[in-house]
Amino acid sequence: MQAPGDTEILALWERGLSRHPIDRALLLCAWARPDLPSSSFPDLPLGKINRVLLHLREICFGPRIIACIDCEHCSTRMEVTLDTSQLLAGINEDDTTNKFDNRPAEFEISNLRFRVPCSRDLAAISGERDIKAAAVKLLKQCCLELPESRKTDFASMLPKAEAAMEILDPAADINLSLSCEDCDHSWLASFNIGSLLWDEIDVRARALLAEVHSLAQAYGWTEPEIFALSPQRRAAYLDMVGI
Ligand SMILES: [Zn+2]
Question: Rounded CA gap, 105 and 114, in Å?
Fold first, then answer.
């Protein structure tokens, strides 16, 4: 996997700008893994998507991530330094070879078979505001066979289902164990690599547009001409025009 160049960053940003965050993550995955059919990504287990995104983040912006998180108890803003290799530790698989296995793992509860969730399932519950109702709906989505009784109590299966999903697809939900220095509160915060990576690409794309704007205005160069300059020459010209 190679880092996207300036032209590719802008093309990705342009294509993802009006998309839902779930679709943006899939867009980035499809870019990172051109060897796989893009139509397969919505059905991949969420952990596989997260692993591809963590690798892509490492390639694009390096392994070090500095995230700002507010304490959920006293709202004090904390700066947390993360590392992609630490986040991938224990949840990594050999995703870089042709052994990329896209079959979702399955489990059984009360004689019903389920699979681990994929992005298509997240999209199906994205309009649900109630967390418990969303979890039940997600479990129904993942049920591989119609229950004999329409009164099947999916809600009561949630604890076992969540435990099974955690074991079978540990990278699906990346949690950070945090502690606030101000109030000593400790909690688990969910870390969304898709949102973080998109935000970083958005910042990079807008910075590139600003650079093109300044140099085009000053010298009359086109966007391809500006991107053809070496980073050193571009920086030197930007310096001369006062950017
Ligand atoms: Zn606090």
Answer: 9
